């Protein structure tokens, strides 16, 4: 039998609590206190019975014990579960009005059992032992109402509970337990866990760093700094903060409510509630609360009036007119009047509204989950449906990171006064050994030790682990035959004296190590514009030389060539030696250390695989190859089949070989993707050519296998050369015939100028390329360019291999790339991939303004926005060739900022929205400025609702600034995903459309329910009020009203929420921030149906009895008795509500039976049939409980006729223009006021109940609790 393995941590609890308090102290040097009080990091590890290398041992009993002593990693501090259904049932009974109705019904049962029913104070014949049945009917109906309310609350919170579990399951942290690295949910982290953190990570709990490598955190969410540099003197990190740069390991000290974020959350409770009220005033929930308050107030007023009228009229009639004495049986009448008043209050309150919202949101989020769209806030989806403006990042949103990892490599360097190009292993002999050693030491030591070069076990290819730029430097050191691994073994991270971590603003990184007992060695690297100013010397073969004007100018020229012509990322490496002046690293200031360097090398790095566009792709659309004939235009596939028949196979194969070897081997065509198109990976031009090979019915991979990339001789133009002068050339060796073959592709200008002959349809068919042919080719290409088609020309050349002649001089590029044979040209057309272009087009058709916010240049951003459809002509913008519709951040600031440095809304509105589709050159810290301006813009009558779609590590504030935040699940950083309300888990941008569609569906479903609810409520209240005044008697019994309430609330919420949204809903315009909930079209429908139903009810009451030979049930003699006439009125009212429910299935469409996609909601039909069935059963069987009498066939048909006539009347009402309703009658454009005050809320407070508190107990750290503002514990908005 296994023995329990529980750590003895009870004694450590107090010391750990003291340590947690010490974390937030203002002590400057916390390292000294940690060493003195707790015995250093190792002492803390011993205290928590963990290890700084291997973490805790993951044994179930041990983990449970840690959770019992130190708590659970949730803000509530406990692992609370969902309450039982009994809890919700008891909670539903806390409604004071229902309690009074229940008490009154019980008393009515007792009185009715002992006393006969009375009418106007006189006993009703044959009513002995029957009066109690009405009380039973009331109790039964109330029980059903309570049951449905309990189930509604239960399933609502069950849904939120499951949603929260999904949120928590999405949050992963990397921990080391027992020396094994594993990913676990945040909630499963225990005190003592060893967690790994890196740039972009969200800190999962409070802890202390045991390994620190350039860690900078953003702690603004807990009211600390935005950029806090972590060191041994400040090693503490806090939950909900995030790592900006660097990496490290931490031991968890506090979890859940005991963290600083948890404590702060408790202090913010009142502030959060007030912010929630402010936010709610502009959301659907706030507007619904106001509408509910209006109905509640109306119900209370009319309920009181009706009850008082009934009581007063009864008293006057019995005690004054009839002069009867008091009789205890009279309490039956008094009690019924009081119950009627309370029931009217119940009927007026739209209790089914929360149930309708819950059902609709649950269905919507279930669909979202199937579509891999993760919703973190159950209320935010409806807000997404009201979005009027969407601000998107370009990188990571409209473009995605390539499916292959990005790889960087050193292409050029400046060392020892030499500008070197190519592979470092080829020119390493030109570099002195001393410089190689200094360079290798600087690279190995002054890079993150988590960056490494590994080799694949399968094919031996190089795998970059960690930062790709640092990996490029490490690979460069290996190519120089300097082992960086050996250097790192000599200088472990523990031996570092001081590290100045890389700062994106300062653009450099410095590491200080001890060289010997007397000296320190300082290595630094950074951007040339920063580092060159810090260098006073340069390292050469002769030693360190002063960096005088001449040498400095030479270095500047090299940097300019690397940056402008070669388009490389440039990094300067420098070092210096400093004598020991102090062993206290706090006395080593950054300004003092980072100066007087010796420049060792200038390195130019190229990204060999960058980003592939998810928003565009290139394909071959036309061309001319190895023939005088051209192809292109309509039915390209058929033309290519004909073309293949007219050209020799050997020539086609040679062209395919040229495409295969003269494109980047990392560019490939992969399997069909979700858009049903072959996936292009790598350079778009390369992929277009490779796909053209496949369209010819050929393949290219076998040529790449035959001619490895490493054996190629490569030539390439500078990146800033004119497009028609750019080129790529590859030389390979062929065995049959024995020759070198040069394949060239590039701009038409370069290729034509270098070509002397042109190849026609025969291997030996080359002829001279004269000026006339060149003119014709240029003319054809110019026409292609006017059609926005990008031309690529091709040429070849054979270099004969002669015996004993040696290898050609490959450095003589001009000779190699001369006397070419022109093969032909292809036109590449940049097309838009459906998922982005179609989604943007659909968003625009749905009424959304799409704006791109990017750090790219204005030219690049404008060109991309034009291709993916963001830039579209408007009435204020004439189409001009190559026009860019936007501005960069400098122009934006100039146009919009006022004297205070903040946005001047008047200036902003002048450029919004027609002149601001693209905001370029925008740093992360300024992206939210455009969102701030849009949100308060009043150019649109109903205001703006802004969605932000971003995925970068610095985009948290940008995402939080929007009314709705969205991020990507694959390319999105942890920070972006934590800030977002909606995560598109597959990075499919078209998922935005799904959220808009279902968000609008939620809104319109609520409108359908409100239209039905308001109509039924107003009709019922007006009929009861008029009936009480005219007849001094309620026209409907309490049980009848409660049955009507079930139809209006619970059953209506089930019936009207079963529809699925059709595509046509995207053609409805967004409602905006201040759109009145009760619009003119809704009011037209409500008023129109109210007039008709009230007219029908009173026609039946006053005129229809004689017309149908029915005994009048509303005379003074028989008004107290159940009658067919009264039953007919009751049944007609029920039938009209049921048929009007059909009218309410569509708010803005005549066809109320099927949607435009031809679907019908069978749940709706079943609910309607159920209600009809119950009504028939009530009339036939429950006479006394519901005070009805059986009707004959004619009476049933008349009831059915009047109910069915509602459908015809609905078409008439729909025909009436909504303009007949004055605009001033619209209501609920704003939600609840900031302070829940006023008579509306005072009267409604009689029935109000606090929200069920079950969900509040299990919303975790940084979560999106739907009852709180988004990100209650998270980086604050700026």
From TrEMBL:
Residue ranges of every copy of the Cation-transporting P-type ATPase C-terminal domain listed in the record = 1034-1213
Q: Where in the cell is it found?
A: Endomembrane system
Q: What SUPFAM superfamilies does UniProt report for this protein, alphabetically? A: Calcium ATPase, transduction domain A (SSF81653), Calcium ATPase, transmembrane domain M (SSF81665), HAD-like (SSF56784), Metal cation-transporting ATPase, ATP-binding domain N (SSF81660)
Show where the P-type ATPase A domain sits.
170-265
Which Pfam families does the protein's record reference?
Cation_ATPase (PF13246), Cation_ATPase_C (PF00689), E1-E2_ATPase (PF00122)
Membrane-crossing residues? 88-115, 135-155, 293-314, 334-361, 1009-1030, 1082-1105, 1125-1142, 1162-1183, 1195-1216
Which BP terms does GO give this entry? Answer: regulation of cytosolic calcium ion concentration
> What membrane topology does the UniProt entry give?
Multi-pass membrane protein
Q: Which UniProt keywords apply?
A: Magnesium, Membrane, Metal-binding, Transmembrane, Transmembrane helix
Q: Mind telling me which GO cellular component terms the entry cites? A: endomembrane system; plasma membrane
Key word Metal-binding present in the record? yes
Q: Which InterPro entries match?
A: ATPase_P-typ_cation-transptr_C (IPR006068), ATPase_P-typ_cyto_dom_N (IPR023299), ATPase_P-typ_TM_dom_sf (IPR023298), ATPase_P-typ_transduc_dom_A_sf (IPR008250), ATPase_P-type_domA (IPR059000), HAD-like_sf (IPR036412), P_typ_ATPase (IPR001757)
Q: Which GO terms describe its molecular function?
A: ATP binding; ATP hydrolysis activity; metal ion binding; P-type calcium transporter activity
Gene3D superfamilies listed in its UniProt record: Calcium-transporting ATPase, cytoplasmic domain N (3.40.1110.10), Calcium-transporting ATPase, cytoplasmic transduction domain A (2.70.150.10), Calcium-transporting ATPase, transmembrane domain (1.20.1110.10)
Q: Which domain of life is it from?
A: Eukaryota
PANTHER family, A to Z? CALCIUM-TRANSPORTING ATPASE (PTHR24093:SF369), CATION TRANSPORTING ATPASE (PTHR24093)
Stated name of the protein: Plasma membrane calcium-transporting ATPase 3-like
Naturally occurring in which organism (per UniProt): Actinia tenebrosa (Australian red waratah sea anemone)
State the encoding gene: LOC116307619
């Amino acid at each position: 039998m296994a023995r329990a393995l529980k750590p003895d941590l009870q004694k450590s609890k107090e010391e750990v609590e003291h340590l947690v308090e010490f974390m937030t102290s203002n002590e400057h040097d916390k390292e000294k206190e940690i060493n003195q009080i707790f015995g250093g990091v190792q002492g803390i590890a011993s205290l928590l019975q963990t290890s700084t290398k291997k973490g805790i041992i993951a044994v179930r009993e041990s983990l449970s014990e840690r959770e019992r002593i130190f708590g659970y990693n949730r803000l509530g501090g406990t692992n609370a579960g969902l309450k039982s259904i009994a809890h919700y049932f008891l909670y539903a009974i806390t409604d004071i009005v229902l309690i009074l109705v229940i008490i009154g019904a019980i008393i009515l049962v007792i009185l009715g059992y002992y006393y006969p029913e009375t009418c106007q104070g006189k006993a009703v014949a044959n009513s002995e032992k029957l009066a109690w049945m009405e009380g039973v009917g009331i109790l039964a109906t109330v029980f059903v109402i309570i049951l449905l309310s309990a189930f509604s609350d239960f399933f609502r919170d069950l849904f939120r509970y499951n949603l929260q579990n999904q949120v928590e399951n999405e949050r992963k942290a990397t921990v080391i337990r027992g020396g094994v690295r594993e990913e676990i949910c945040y909630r499963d982290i225990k005190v003592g866990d060893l967690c790994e953190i890196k740039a972009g990570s969200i800190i999962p709990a409070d802890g202390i760093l045991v390994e620190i490598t350039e860690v900078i955190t953003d702690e603004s969410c807990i009211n600390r700094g935005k950029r806090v540099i972590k060191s041994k003197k400040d090693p503490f990190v806090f939950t909900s903060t995030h790592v900006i740069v660097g990496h490290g390991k931490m031991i968890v000290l506090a979890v859940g409510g005991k963290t600083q974020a948890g404590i702060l959350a408790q202090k913010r409770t009142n502030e959060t509630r007030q912010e929630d009220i402010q936010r709610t005033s502009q959301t659907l929930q706030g507007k619904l609360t106001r509408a509910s308050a209006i109905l509640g107030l109306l119900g209370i007023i009319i309920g009181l009036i009706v009850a008082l009228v009934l009581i007063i009229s009864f008293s006057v009639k019995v005690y004054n007119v009839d002069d009867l004495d008091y009789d205890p049986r009279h309490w039956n009448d008094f009690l019924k009047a009081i119950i009627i008043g309370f029931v009217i209050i119940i009927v007026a309150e739209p209790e089914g509204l929360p149930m309708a919202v819950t059902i609709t949101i649950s269905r919507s989020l279930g669909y979202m989950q199937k579509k891999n769209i993760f919703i973190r806030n159950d209320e935010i989806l409806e807000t997404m449906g009201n979005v009027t403006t969407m601000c998107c990042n370009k990188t990571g949103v409209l473009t995605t990171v390539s499916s292959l990892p990005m790889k960087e490599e050193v292409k050029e360097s400046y060392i020892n006064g030499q500008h070197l190009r190519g592979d470092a292993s080829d020119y390493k002999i030109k570099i002195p050994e001393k410089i190689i050693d200094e360079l290798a030491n600087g690279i190995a030591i002054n890079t993150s030790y988590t960056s490494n070069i590994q080799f694949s076990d399968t094919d031996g290819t190089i795998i970059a682990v960690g930062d790709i730029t640092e990996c490029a430097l490490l690979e460069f050191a290996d190519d120089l035959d300097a082992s960086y691994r050996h250097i790192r073994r000599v200088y472990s991270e523990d031996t570092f004296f001081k590290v100045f971590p890389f700062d994106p603003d300062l653009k450099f990184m410095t590491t200080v190590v001890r060289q010997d007992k007397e000296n320190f060695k300082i290595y630094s690297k950074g951007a040339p514009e920063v580092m060159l100013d810090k260098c006073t010397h340069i390292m050469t073969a002769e030693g360190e030389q002063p960096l005088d004007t001449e040498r400095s100018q030479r270095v500047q020229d090299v940097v300019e060539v690397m940056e402008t012509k070669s388009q490389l990322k440039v990094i300067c490496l420098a070092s210096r030696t400093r004598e020991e002046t102090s062993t206290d690293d706090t006395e080593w200031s950054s300004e003092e250390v980072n100066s007087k360097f010796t420049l060792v090398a200038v390195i130019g790095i190229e990204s060999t695989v960058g980003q592939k566009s998810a928003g565009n792709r290139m394909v071959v659309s036309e061309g001319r190859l190895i023939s005088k004939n051209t192809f292109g235009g309509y039915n390209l596939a058929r033309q290519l089949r004909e073309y293949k028949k007219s050209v020799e196979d050997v020539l086609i194969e040679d062209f395919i070989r040229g495409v295969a070897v003269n494109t980047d081997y990392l560019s490939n065509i992969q399997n069909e993707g979700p858009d049903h198109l072959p996936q292009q990976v790598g350079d778009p031009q390369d992929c277009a050519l490779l796909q053209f090979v496949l369209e010819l019915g050929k393949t290219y991979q076998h040529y790449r296998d035959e001619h490895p990339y490493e054996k190629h001789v490569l030539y390439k133009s500078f990146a800033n050369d004119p497009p028609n002068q750019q080129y790529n050339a590859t030389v390979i060796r062929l065995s049959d015939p024995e020759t070198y073959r040069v394949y060239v592709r590039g701009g038409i200008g370069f290729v034509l100028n270098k070509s002397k002959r042109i190849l026609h349809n025969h291997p030996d068919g080359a002829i001279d390329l004269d000026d006339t042919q060149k003119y014709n080719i240029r003319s054809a290409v110019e026409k292609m360019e006017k059609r926005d088609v990008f031309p690529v020309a091709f040429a070849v050349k054979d270099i004969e291999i002669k015996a004993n002649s040696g290898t050609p001089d490959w450095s003589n590029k001009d000779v190699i790339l001369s006397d070419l044979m022109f093969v032909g040209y292809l036109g590449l057309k940049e097309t838009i991939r459906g998922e982005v272009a179609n989604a943007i087009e659909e968003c625009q058709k749905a009424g959304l303004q799409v704006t791109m916010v990017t750090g790219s240049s204005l030219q690049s951003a404008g060109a991309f926005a034009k291709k993916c459809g963001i830039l579209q002509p408007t009435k204020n913008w004439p189409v001009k060739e190559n026009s860019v519709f936007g501005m960069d951040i400098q122009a934006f600031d100039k146009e919009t900022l006022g004297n205070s440095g903040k946005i001047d809304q008047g200036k902003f509105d002048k450029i919004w929205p027609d002149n601001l589709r693209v905001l370029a050159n925008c740093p992360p810290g300024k992206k939210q400025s455009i969102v701030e301006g849009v949100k308060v813009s009043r150019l649109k009558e109903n205001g703006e609702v802004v969605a932000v779609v971003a995925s970068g590590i610095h985009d948290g504030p940008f995402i939080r600034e929007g009314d709705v935040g969205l991020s990507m699940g694959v390319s999105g950083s942890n920070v972006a995903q934590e800030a977002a309300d909606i995560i598109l888990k597959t990075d499919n941008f078209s998922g935005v459309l799904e959220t808009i569609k279902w968000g609008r569906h939620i809104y319109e479903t609520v409108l359908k329910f409100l239209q039905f609810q308001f109509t039924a409520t107003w009709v019922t209240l007006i009929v009861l009020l008029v009936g009480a005044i005219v007849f001094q008697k309620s026209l409907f019994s309490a049980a009848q009203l409660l049955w009507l309430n079930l139809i209006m609330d619970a059953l209506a919420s089930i019936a009207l929420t079963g529809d699925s949204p059709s595509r046509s809903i995207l053609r409805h315009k967004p409602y905006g921030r201040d759109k009145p909930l009760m619009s003119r079209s809704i009011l037209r429908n409500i008023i129109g149906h109210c007039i008709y139903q009230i007219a029908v009810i009173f026609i039946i009451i006053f005129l229809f009895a004689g017309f149908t030979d029915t005994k009048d049930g509303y005379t003074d003699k028989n008004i107290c008795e159940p009658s067919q006439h009264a039953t007919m009125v009751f049944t007609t009212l029920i039938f009209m509500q049921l048929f009007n429910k059909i009218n309410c299935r569509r708010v803005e469409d005549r066809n109320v039976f099927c949607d435009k996609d031809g679907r019908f909601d069978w749940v709706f039909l079943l609910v309607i049939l159920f209600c009809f069935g119950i009504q028939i059963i009530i009339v036939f069987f429950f006479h006394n409980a519901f005070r009805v009498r059986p009707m004959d066939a004619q009476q049933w048909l008349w009831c059915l006729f009047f109910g069915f006539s509602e459908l015809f009347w609905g078409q008439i009402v729909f025909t009436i223009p909504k303009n007949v309703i004055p605009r001033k009658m619209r209501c609920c454009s704003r939600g609840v006021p900031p302070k829940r005050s006023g008579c509306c809320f005072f009267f409604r407070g009689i029935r109000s109940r606090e929200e069920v508190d079950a969900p509040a107990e299990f919303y975790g750290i940084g979560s999106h609790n739907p009852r709180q503002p988004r990100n209650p514990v998270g980086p604050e908005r700026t």
